[in-house]
Amino acid sequence: MGELTRGTAPPHAARTPYLLLAPNVFWLLVFMLGPIAMLAVISLHGYQPGTGILDTWSVDNYEKFLGDVFYRDVLWRTLGMGATTTVACLLLGFPLAFLLSRLRGIRRSVLYFLLLLPLLTSAVVRTFGWMILLGNNGFINRTLIALGVVDDPIRMMYSISGIVIALTEVLLPFMVLALDAALLNIDPHLYEAAQNLGARKVRIFFGVTLPLVVPGIVSGSVLVFTLAVSAFVTPSLIGGPRIKLMATLIYQQSMGLLNWPFGAAIAFVMLFTILVLFVVTFRMTTSRRAA
Amino acid sequence: MLWAISAAVLVYLLAPIIVVVATAFTATAYPVFPPRGFSLHWFEKFLATPEFVQAIRISTMLAASSTILATSLGTFSGLALARFPIPGKSTISALLLSPILFPTIVLGLALLIFNTRIGINGTFPGLVCAHVVLVTPFVIRMVMVSLSQFDPAIEEAARNVGAGWWRTFLFITLPLIRPGVVAGAVFAFILSFDELVVTLFLSAPGLQTLPIRIYTYVEYSSDPTISAISTVLIATWLVIGLPVYARFFSVRHP
């Protein structure tokens, strides 16, 4: 004690980081990785209504999902919904992020606050707001009819388009924050250089801004797509029981029909899909950098 | 042009929140937008409905318990990741932050199976264990951002004059990163209170949190009581969340 330990750490210090990490790692092993491993095992078991989970081992649940046209459609519908939501978030989020990255001081803080406000509001509350807006008698349809745009209400509740409209709004802040981070990373001197060389605004945008913001587009899109294909609250409330997507199907199979093995298999198809997306984007971004 | 597009997108982004708050004050029997008349009836109905009041109690206890555990685990992890050279650090930090992106619908089912097997499904502790998994990464992130904002030399100086690791942590590091720890705890509390998907899998009839009550209510009926509850929630998170956020993010974005 009291001895100077400049430069060299005391012997016990080597253990310190591991002791600090141990409780958290232990918690995740027990309450996340362990349960996911159990989920994998259960997805390989059979299920008999009335009897429960069987001790048989097979890949029947995966065959049932991937071999049946009905379930394959659920997979494609989910991926299509996720892709549409991601593109919509990108198109709507870009102008907002572009504006945000150019603002300074109090103006930036105000816009930032308006982006954080939805993030502080739970998805179920925001989805409830959309349920009020999207109904056949809702604000949007009444306005469209009053303006003479349509004669009959457009069906948005209990439809894929309604899910995309609401889910895009729910996930939009994530995209804007990802794009804003990438836009802020661009060295302002590049703009000055381009300007001094006589480039016009449009040219600067497509020649400087857009190529440099690609990492933000990629990370924001991967984030939004992942959250969209696994989203449950908005699809189940806006889509209702008739619109089948992977997340609502997992819930219905495991909680409604108590068929945990089949629910588990669909869950792993979802995880695998997301994993493929991660690997593909990782490959693409690293090869871009290498080129 | 950019301003006009951005304004339109902002209206879209804030539309459901505006609608929910506006319909909470409607005098009609169902939520219409724009609201007709003015009434505080739906707030009274909310407070007079025992299921909702009970649900608030359960959600508050759940969020408080999860926050205490998550803040302890997350602060230690954040410290280890930000201040120590550890082999395989990127793998460990990817693991610790993975619950942020991991599909909750999958984790919910996995924990339903696990909790049933070990006999804690449908119990309060079972829910706390799950919520801690979900919210700890946000504490870690906030603590790491906080730690990156001051020089490790300050801690080194304390150790050089003879303070042990714990003394340095308690009297130097912790006070310096307190804004980050508080921001992480507030964030954890709000996320745990609002969590729905995993909770749906793990709750029991006597253990209905507020988000579950809201979800099952709007699934089958629509009345402005839900708008009133949502308005109270939005206002509460604004009051307790925003000052912490504002201070925290203003440091990051001068």
Word description of this protein:
Chain A is built from 12 helices and 2 strands, in the order αββααααααααααα. Helix content of chain A is 75%, strand content 3%. Chain A is mostly helical and 291 residues long. Chain A is globular, with a radius of gyration of 25 Å. Chain A has a single domain, classed as MetI-like fold (Orthogonal Bundle), CATH 1.10.3720. The model of chain A is unreliable at 1-8 (pLDDT under 50). Chain B is mainly α. The longest helix of chain B is centred in the N-terminal third of the chain and has 34 residues, at 50-83. The relative contact order of chain B is 0.15. Chain B has a single domain (41-252), classed as MetI-like (MetI-like fold, Orthogonal Bundle).
What can be said about this structure in brief?
The complex is a heterodimer of chains A (291) and B (254). Chain A is 75% helix and 3% strand. Chain A is mainly α.
Which helices and strands occur, and which strands form pairs?
The complex is a heterodimer of chains A (291) and B (254).
Chain A (H helix, E strand, L loop, with lengths): L15 H27 L2 E4 L3 E6 L2 H8 L1 H34 L2 H16 L2 H12 L4 H8 L13 H25 L3 H9 L4 H30 L2 H7 L6 H11 L3 H31 L1
Antiparallel strand pairs in A: 1-2
Chain B lengths: L1 H22 L17 H8 L1 H34 L5 H9 L6 H15 L5 H24 L5 H8 L4 H30 L2 H6 L7 H11 L3 H29 L2
Helix pairs in contact in B: 1-11, 2-11, 3-6, 3-8, 6-8, 7-8, 8-11
Unreliable residue stretches of chain B: none
Strands of the widest sheet of chain A, in order across it, are: 1-2
Overall outline of chain B: globular
What portion of the residues of chain B fall into strands of 2 or more residues? under 5%
Percent of residues in helices of chain A comes to over 70%
Spans of chain A of at least 5 consecutive residues whose pLDDT stays below 50 are: 1-8
Integer average pLDDT of chain A: 91
CATH superfamily annotation of chain A: MetI-like
Instruction: Measure the end-to-end span of chain B.
Output: 26 Å
**Got a strand count of chain B?**
0
SS-based class of chain B: mainly alpha
> Helical element count of chain B?
11
Under the CATH scheme, which architecture of chain A would be assigned? Orthogonal Bundle
